[in-house]
Design a protein that fits this description.
about 50% helix; 4 helices; mainly alpha
Length: about 140
Amino acid sequence: MNKVEENNLIKTIDDLAKDKAEKTKLEGAIKKASDFVKKKFNELEIEEYTTDNFRAYLQYSNKIDMDEDKIIQILKENCKKDDYEKVIRTKEYVDFEALESLIYNGGIPAEKLEPAQTTKTTISLYTKPVKKEKEDE
């Protein structure tokens, strides 16, 4: 790596670390301010407020999740058997504790399962300040 590339890398790492620290601090301040405004809106029973420069308002969105166990129960009680069987599926799965026992007891060699193994690598970049050694005076 030449000197220009090295200096660019050094500057980028230093800037990245500073930006991440600022982001974390800023995210905390934003959350605190947002929580305060939401609490105040709730106390005042309002959904929006306009200052000289900005309009703050609440927007509601709903996310609907389905409880599969309840769906299955409702379908069992309300559908014909043929319709129920078209909708409800049985999925085979591996009981890893039982598999471990099977391998341990010689039921199947572990090597036979190697084609089923996958490795997922996650690369994370972290930055930390360098601890400066105290200079003796």
